[in-house]
Amino acid sequence: MEELLEILENLHPEVDFSDCDTLIDDKILDSFDIITLVTEINTEFGVAIPAEELIPENFNSAEALYELIERLQDED
Amino acid sequence: MLFTSYEFIAFLGGLFILYYILPKKCQWVLLLIGSAVFYAWAGLRFLAYIGITTVTTWFAAVRIGAIQATGNAFYDAHKKEMDKDARKAYKAGIKKKTRVWFLACLLLNLGILAVIKYTDFVIDNINAIFSAEISFLSFALPMGISFYTFKSMGYLIDVYRNKAEAQGNLAKFALFVSFFPQIIQGPISRYNKLSETLYAQHAFDPLQIRRGLLRIAWGFFKKLVIADRLLVAVKTLAGSPEEYQGAYVVLIILFYAIELYADFTGGIDITIGVGEIFGIQMEENFITPYFSKNINEYWTRWHITMGTWFKDYIFYPLSVSQPMLKLSKWSRDHMGKAVGKRVTVYIANIVVWFATGLWHGAAWNFIVWGMLNCVVTVASYEMEPLYKKFHAALPATNRGWYNVFQMFRTFWLMGAIRILDVYRNVPTSFKQVGSIFTTGGWGSIFSADIAKLGLTGPDYTVLFIGCVLMIAVSVVRYRQKDDIRANIEACGTVAVTAVILALVFAVLIFGAYGVGYDASQFIYNQF
Q1: How far is residue B13 from each of residues B10, B34, B51, B277, measured CA to CA in Å?
Q2: Residue B2's pLDDT is what?
């Protein structure tokens, strides 16, 4: 989780990612950010997030994103 | 059958009466018949195109759904007996079987769209490059082909991704594809969203119907009182670029921005309002786009369903595809983190904007328009850290007045790019925008010369009042979640009825009809 928070904070240092669950709804993360995240996660965690998982529910909070990574790691 | 025709009013009235007289279970069937009549009105021969897309997409989605259902049932029953690798291999096997149907259907339908819409453009370019004389095929463009193809392919992708259930009833699916209010200019609805209300049984709900009528009346007002009136001046200015340069180009940027907004959002208001009088809800396609503070925000507020279609079905899949991730990794290893981070986003962005330009029309002006949007989007992304530093250093720039400046800047920037749509010629467009900085004429546009553009003093007065109303409605929408109808409804039924009647009278009295006007197609029909 700390690794993920570091990636997110590098993207938007001004946001408190540990306490935000409206990252997409409040337009804090845009489509460019999401793709940057996917490539960073692929490098750091070795997980390829498929296009069908790029939905607001999976990216609205760091927690939801971490759960997605764990689920995909488990499926791998 | 144009929305702004007497035929359409009669058609809608007849359909509305039957819709609430006949048993509720017939409602969706009636809408299908209505949609078929509406489509056939444009020419019976066009029914074949939409028919092929409907049947092939329906069949492929049903096959994909069946393979997934059988495969998933077997997987659920036997997954405990399989190890991790076997589970993965089994799932990959299901995907492979569905992929055949998915790709065949996708290629067929996008192929039809490509051949019909782009063959002559390709021939034209081949002729120009190789001095050849290949004859044009001159296919007639079936009504709404870009819209219904995208809507159908969105559904197919959703089924393939297991995000939507395949519709087993061909007639119900045909209604989704051909639903008449949105066939000619969107919104490009998602199946999951539209099907929630499209097939449901709807009771006669006066509140909902008044709400729909109010939106329809406002749509007609924007289209006939504002857009079609301004069209006269826009045509005059665009028709003689040599004569109208400098300040006149600024004027045409402003006029076209207003005309396109009133035309396109007016059409969408009619579409959404028609849906509402039948109890059917559609996605918003515009949310105060001219109040956007930057280009990225603009594209989340203008033609929203098209933007999300390109994002969900092209930008994301392309960006996260295996080759792109590999390219990103390679770039990161060989050219550094900064390049590796950007390469996928940039390539996908270029592809999406090229496709968006091409979707708007088979011409270079649309492609250049798309690529200019791409450049500004990327520049805006790159300059974001700089903007953040700027705002942190000057806290005053976070206040209201600076927001207004940002809106003003975005409005004119998008307007300047949109000029390619006005002149429909790339060199002319650049030349005209360049003339703003080299040619004067500012006195002329503030003099009696402005009356030579085909509009009279009273026309400008009507336009001014119309624009003030549009801005007021937009300000209310910008400040609250719901549109202005919530405020009018809060004043009671009489107020709603009075506003509807006022708009109808305004359209009848001030609508741009007759000699000198061309109350023709909605601009977006052609896309």
Answers
A1: 5, 11, 26, 11
A2: 85
